[in-house]
Amino acid sequence: MTVDSSTETLSLSVAITGSGGSGAITCGLILLEAVAAAGLYGLMSRSLGPQIRGGESAAMLRIAREPIDCLDDRFDLLIGLDWLNLERFADELPLVPDSLIVTDTGKGRLPDCLLASRAEVLALPVKQLADEITGGRSNMVALGIAAFLCGLDLNSLLVVTRRQLADKGEKTSEASALCVARGFRAVQNRARLFRPYPAEDKPPLWNISGNEACGLGGLRGGIRFVAAYPITPASDMLEWLSPRLEEVGGSLLQAEDELASVNMLIGASFGGVPAMTATSGPGLSLMAEGLGLAVASETPLVVINVTRGGPSTGIPTKSEQSDLNLAVFGMHGDAPHLVLAPLSIRDCAFTTEWAVRLAEALQTVAIVLTDQFLGQNRGITDPAHSAKFELRRKTGLQNEDGYRRYAIAEDGLSSMGIPGMPECIYTADGLEHDEQGVPSNLTSDHPAQLAKRLHKLTCFDYGPHWLEIQGEGDVCLLTWGSTAAAVFEAARRLRTQRIDTRVIALRLLAPLQREALRDLLRPAMRILVVELNHQAQCFHYLHAQQVLPEDAGSLARPGPIPWRPGEIVNQVLESQDR
Amino acid sequence: MTVDSSTETLSLSVAITGSGGSGAITCGLILLEAVAAAGLYGLMSRSLGPQIRGGESAAMLRIAREPIDCLDDRFDLLIGLDWLNLERFADELPLVPDSLIVTDTGKGRLPDCLLASRAEVLALPVKQLADEITGGRSNMVALGIAAFLCGLDLNSLLVVTRRQLADKGEKTSEASALCVARGFRAVQNRARLFRPYPAEDKPPLWNISGNEACGLGGLRGGIRFVAAYPITPASDMLEWLSPRLEEVGGSLLQAEDELASVNMLIGASFGGVPAMTATSGPGLSLMAEGLGLAVASETPLVVINVTRGGPSTGIPTKSEQSDLNLAVFGMHGDAPHLVLAPLSIRDCAFTTEWAVRLAEALQTVAIVLTDQFLGQNRGITDPAHSAKFELRRKTGLQNEDGYRRYAIAEDGLSSMGIPGMPECIYTADGLEHDEQGVPSNLTSDHPAQLAKRLHKLTCFDYGPHWLEIQGEGDVCLLTWGSTAAAVFEAARRLRTQRIDTRVIALRLLAPLQREALRDLLRPAMRILVVELNHQAQCFHYLHAQQVLPEDAGSLARPGPIPWRPGEIVNQVLESQDR
Amino acid sequence: MNASLPLQAKDYKSSIKPVWCPGCGHYAVFNALTKALAHLGLAREEVALISGIGCSSRLPAYLNTYGFHGIHGRALPLASGLKAARPELTVVAAGGDGDGFSIGGNHFLHACRRNMDLTYIVMDNEVYGMTKGQASPTTAPEWTQSKLTPHGTGIPRFRPAAIALAAGAGFIARGFSGKPADLAKLLVEAIKYKGFAFVHVLSPCRTFRPEQKGWKEQVHSGDPELHDPLQVTNCIQSDDGLTLGVLYRHPMSVWQPILQHPGSLEQIE
Amino acid sequence: MNASLPLQAKDYKSSIKPVWCPGCGHYAVFNALTKALAHLGLAREEVALISGIGCSSRLPAYLNTYGFHGIHGRALPLASGLKAARPELTVVAAGGDGDGFSIGGNHFLHACRRNMDLTYIVMDNEVYGMTKGQASPTTAPEWTQSKLTPHGTGIPRFRPAAIALAAGAGFIARGFSGKPADLAKLLVEAIKYKGFAFVHVLSPCRTFRPEQKGWKEQVHSGDPELHDPLQVTNCIQSDDGLTLGVLYRHPMSVWQPILQHPGSLEQIE
Ligand SMILES: Cc1ncc(C[n+]2csc(CCOP(=O)(O)OP(=O)(O)O)c2C)c(N)n1
Ligand SMILES: Cc1ncc(C[n+]2csc(CCOP(=O)(O)OP(=O)(O)O)c2C)c(N)n1
Ligand code: SF4
Ligand code: SF4
Ligand SMILES: [Mg+2]
Ligand SMILES: [Mg+2]
Asked: Pick from A125, C187, B419, C128: which is nearest to D47 by CA?
């Protein structure tokens, strides 16, 4: 077994699994926090069985010395608190002969699917060690084992453990600390799988989920009103936001359904208060009509869509990027608006902050496409500071010749009256209207207002943030949203194999920066569009906008498992061979 | 003034306008019926002011010896019952110096916008003539005038007038007949503008609206359940269907909203009864989530979307083709389904019948995109007979090894259990499921079921009906839905100008017949995609599917006025010059 | 116009001509509302009129206050969002029986429960006027004039006051467009009431329900204002739907978002 | 299995293992329903169980009858469409308090009014179980355990029975999953009732509302069955929400589509 042989990212991947009540997730969460305390970067994903609560679960971590945003293709270490129903996760836990499996001597034989990997097996009396401590639990022993193998320091681990379990009472936290120490020492005679460098002198890292980061970005963008209806996997963003909105003088309203929530946003925003909601596919579908109203009446608002497996109820707890079509095209009539997608957990904060500012400045709808992977996974990341954009909504009476809410201006942007302003009273309308806002079906007003609403979006200067770009080369991997992290890592690996690879990751999907993107793509020899959905939605969307050459290729597959970097590398290599 | 100089289609265009209560529409409707009685083809469109009822209105007719499906670029004859608020319609009533305007001597000066056309003006004492008859009305005098100029026969006109007004009582219908005769004779000394050939020996023509034709097609396809919520311009289809469904043993349920109606369809269809609804943009938006459920659970149903100006409430009484994006892409997740569009009023019957059969056979959603123009205009057309398709839903236990509702079959089609069948009990589900229908988030089931649902649509042989194609040539006009008629006529005119033009009109928009369409387009020199919306939705969709060459052009503009053939001719000529 | 002079009813009217048919009941509701606003002396910029879609829902544009002509059935959530964000504004939602009780029924239920300080005016003509005469939830089951339901709906009427009460509304009144002065008074009461005030207005559709001119003879006033939910329940339960006046008024705790003095964002980060 | 033998409760169970938490009230509802179906001797293929989304809405797959696990809040329209198209089937809709009273509130109102011959079971645990514990319309205003509403909702509870009555339902009953035998009997009555039968079941959420185990002591039976809407209204109005039994039963005309003997299509053309 070697350290970090698989990638040039110096990382280690660890999974902890167990059946209902075994505490695998708690173990993972404390380990992640200890990783942060050690100044390491990390990522933790969790997988759950179909049970509503208390079913089997797996905590999947990756730790590294450099920032990382995706899981690896293999696990270096798998610790089983027990092996019940492990088959459920087998696909998600690829092992190699280099891997190490830690099993509890008391919990019986390893499942065949694991043995097949020919990984090394280390049997330890985990439960027995825990039982020797009053109130001791196996998962804490496992935590100690994992932490040692990950190269963490015992003292700091104990501090973190006690802090994390403080609210369980001192007895529990002390018993846990004892277990952790016991587990740590039980493997001390083995070689560590990972050896962190001494923490550099850098600001403390953040332990944050994408949902939390979106919430934070929203607040920074100026959101002070949220109306929402709970839905997996978006609810925890709303739960994070509720108390914090209050602290900054805003409010959250739990609506009776998504039809209500989107219309509540329109009302609040009409009232001058920046407004946002979070939902997932089924909720976004229900909001379609309301979003069209916001576009037509030019009332800004932001929807964070934390995508899950679709169609219909689909797979609520798993990730997919299959709501792009709906986000871009899902309103009746010609209804141009903004669609953005954050490129990592950390980027959720930036992209959401930008989305709010853009929606406000452009008086339109911004849909932010994150997904279950970004939203519910936790990352140990560099701090994500506010971008402090200058963009603001244009309000009040701007010209001398009377107030015209929907005046045709050169940049398409007319000024919004806000209730309370006596000089710009108007009635907002989803009916087609003239410049004053009066309903009109004249042959002249409709095309003029359609053009206004499109033009304000297309003539705007979005600056450099619409994409992230890395590298040069004959191969160009084009991607968007949550798949970006795996693509960036795949490109790094390809470069080590002497395949010069450029990555273009789109943060702004609509309006697509057509000309700029075409220019960027012109020199590329072989373009592949990588995304996590069945029908290659982005690939076709890019074709729709005529930015791709005829021979561009598509790397699209559905969830429920996100793209892994090695999988992309293989596909690129295969496509080279063809 | 010459007869039919403008086009090689021997047609005449007549408009009758008047303010609230003037009876312009009644006049037009009787004229249209008289046209049918004369064995002529015809089309009547109406335009109304913003008032809910009783505002100014315009009846716009075109009559011809050959089938016609669109309005002309100009009106040959304009009869004003009065000229109040005429500016509202001026854009819709283009006149040329060749045109004739009939004005009532008692109703004052012609509006400037009409005089500007330099059309000939004929002033007649219309109201005075009507007032001489007890119970006489100007609109009936105008009917007589129009009918004479259109070359119709007085006796047959009187028969039609009496029949159409029978339910108003004998007094009214006799007074009207007297007025009609008086109007007819008042212009008898003039040259007729149109001279019908003696009616050939052909079956009587139909006087039908597109909404009625869709209803009829639905019944022929086997629809026996409709649930719906009223919306302009779809309601009259529902009103036509309600009593007729009953006659064939089906039923219609007025739902509380569109969320209910689409789910009611799913319930009925799950019960084995083919089900359909009609709506327009806002309703289609609200149905998005339900349609996704139908796709995921493989429950057939049909939605007729009678498109109106968008986005949002838009222009409810006007036509547009701007719901294509929503129809094709408007569900979350990967949710493949059928999208069709009838190519004329008459074709509404055929396309809807086909759509129902396809939805049933392929166990999916079919969205039929008609629009206000097709739906609410009336045409005098050749009879539209049933296509009597053989396509049926596959039901019951088909194989020996037990019932699997979502079994993976070669053609993607598994057999539906219908309540009442003891051997194929199952639970339909919008959650991703395995072949039995049991919820599953296994890595294997999701891609397999996604592929099944797509494959059944793409591997199906749709036969020749997916498009209509006419002509050969260097210019290829590609179009869809209600714009087709204007494009066909434009092509005929272009050919008379020695520009060989091919027209491809798509009836099946999704799944797009990519390969076949690419083959058809390969030889074309100059491709133009013609459609009635602002963002060139079909043009981009065709690019998304990679069927268009890089240099294909787009002729897209929004409503509220449909494309006219001459406008297309001009655009083609201009694009040639470039 | 000098803002310091008290505004009159006409000052609340915009210059846009209503699309309504001559004789439509909605004109009187419009007039009564402008009178009520004038009576209350509200600044035009502090009032927002929110509606859905329907003939009745065209109201906002005819007023010279802020307004939002939203989408069908969603006036109440839009109004609620506005009120939550801007509690100091006077927010009035208005619409028709189809808008409010058919497609908008769920929001009606939950707005009654949530009890924000809003006024909700439903102009009930027992028909979908805008879409040319289909049955609405308040239409009598035996009304056969709609081609969509040629045998009548066969479904008992929706009883707005009974539902509002069961859902928890604290102010329920019924007005009639044929008695505009009384209606204006009811609207004043409703706007003044702290909480969700529901005003059910009988507002005939001249075009599709000409027989509603008979309402003039049928409406009547009810018991003196009741405050006890139980008594009121009995009263509303046995009501013929034509009783005018304030049917129920009960002080209730008003929902509004907890708006703290804003802290800094940094402390969250 | 020999179809001619009378089916037993277990014969209505499929082989799929419920996803519910140990101790969840929904198990008992499931069991009671299979008992009721067995008692009624219904053929499995003639029964269809329709639901929305939620823990409770997972029910259909666990039954060995036809079923449809639809989308959130839309069980009733789906069930209504099925019943309209196939009146001879026994159609039961089921779901949770969030599904039925929050997002599905409008369909609940209109299903009560429409009065088709359906049974509707709401398993009320006063919480959104599936999405991990947010307040539902029936949650007490002062419940602060949801992070979404950390001060409680501050909104009075939705009262399902009162709404059902005001909306026009003819059969209203309340059961408790802690009394499965009584519940099975209620379900038998509900399915037998000709018309829309609403069964409100208190079905505790062990995971997010552990305090609901107290219900066992709090539930009680009510007045002997009442038939007069006025009396019932009073009763339901003052009800504490924990009264078990049939609260209201009243014969009402059932809505069903007018299904004629089919004529030929040609006569239409
Ligand atoms: C989602 C949606 N569905 C349907 C419609 C069509 N529609 C417009 S107004 C209306 C009903 C209006 O009735 P009501 O609210 O009673 O108002 P009234 O016109 O009678 O004043 C309907 C069904 C729509 N605009 N949007
Ligand atoms: C349109 C839509 N919005 C939100 C959700 C998320 N969601 C799933 S179940 C549920 C609530 C479930 O609560 P309830 O109906 O009371 O059932 P329980 O789980 O408590 O039995 C919600 C909000 C969804 N699936 N679809
Ligand atoms: S249709 Fe009826 S409700 Fe609408 S404006 Fe006319 S009279 Fe009023
Ligand atoms: S979360 Fe609550 S309602 Fe859901 S299964 Fe568990 S105990 Fe039952
Ligand atoms: Mg109405
Ligand atoms: Mg619940």
From this structure: B419
- Could you tell me where the beta strands, DSSP code E, fall in A197-266? 206-209, 225-228, 251-254
- Confirm whether C264 is domain-assigned: no
Burial level of B500, CB count in 10 A (0-12/13-18/19+)? Answer: middle
Helix ranges (DSSP H) in A15-62: 24-37
pLDDT at B137 over 60: yes
Domain that holds residue B432: 394-460
Give pLDDT tens digits for C93-118.
999 999 999 999 999 999 999 999 99
Do B484 and B561 reside in the same domain of the chain?
Answer: yes
Helix (H) or strand (E) holding A428: strand A427-429
A173 shares a domain with A244: no
CB B565 within 8 Å of CB B503: no
- Confirm if B274 and B222 have CB atoms less than 8 A apart: yes
Q: What was the pLDDT predicted at A575?
A: 86
Ligand 1 centroid from CA C128, angstroms: 6
For residues A223 and A312, state if they share a domain. Answer: yes
What span, in angstroms and rounded, lies between the C-alpha atoms of A196 and A156?
Answer: 14
Q: Which of C67, C257, C268 sits opposite A219 (nearest CB)?
A: C268
In this structure, are A452 and A503 located in the same domain? Answer: no
Looking at the structure, tell me whether residues B487 and B363 fall in a common domain: no
In a domain, C59, yes or no: yes
Are the C-beta atoms of B272 and B299 separated by less than 8 Å? no
- B546 CB neighbours in chain A (<8 A) are 543, 550
**Ligand 1 atom closest to the CA of C97, numbered from 1:** 16
- C30 close to C18: Cβ distance less than 8 angstroms: yes
Give the pLDDT band (50/70/90) at residue B199. low
- pLDDT score for B2: 35
CA of D57 relative to ligand 6 center, distance in Å: 10
Nearest-angstrom CA–CA distance, B104 and A500: 81
B497 and B410 together in one domain: no
Q: Are residues A358 and A217 in the same domain?
A: yes
Q: Each residue of D199-235: pLDDT tens digit?
A: 999 999 999 999 999 999 999 988 777 777 778 878 8
The structural domain count of chain B equals 4
For ligand 1, whether the C-beta of C102 sits within 6 Å is no
Helix, strand and coil content of chain A, in percent to the nearest 5, comes to 40, 20, 40
Asked if residue B389 belongs to a domain, the reply is no
Q: C25-50 burial by CB neighbour count: b if 16+ within 10 A, else e?
A: bbbbbbbbbbbbbbbeebebbbbbbb
φ, ψ for residue A408 (rounded to 5)? -80, 115
Cβ atoms A352, A342 nearer than 8 A = yes
Output the pTM of the full model.
Answer: 0.97
Residue among D124, D206, D209 to mutate when testing ligand 4 (max atoms within 8 A of CB): D206
Whole-number average pLDDT of chain A: 95
Task: List, for residues B26-39, the tens digit of each pLDDT value.
Answer: 999 999 999 999 99
Residues C57-79 pLDDT 10s: 999 999 999 999 999 999 999 99
Q: Which domain holds residue C137?
A: 19-258
ipTM more than 0.90? yes
Domain-terminating residue out of B420, B438, B460: B460
Q: How far apart, in whole angstroms, are the C-alpha atoms of residue B93 and residue B87?
A: 10
DSSP class of residue C99 equals I
Here the CATH number for the domain that contains residue A309 is 3.40.50.970
Q: How far apart are CA C216 and CA C179, in angstroms?
A: 9
Q: Is residue D217 part of a domain?
A: yes
Question: Is B456 contained in some domain?
Answer: yes
Q: Are residues B107 and B253 in the same domain?
A: no
Does any domain span residue D264? no
Structural domain count, chain D:
1
Q: Which of B427, B460, B493 is the last residue of a domain?
A: B460
CATH classification of the domain holding D59: 3.40.50.970
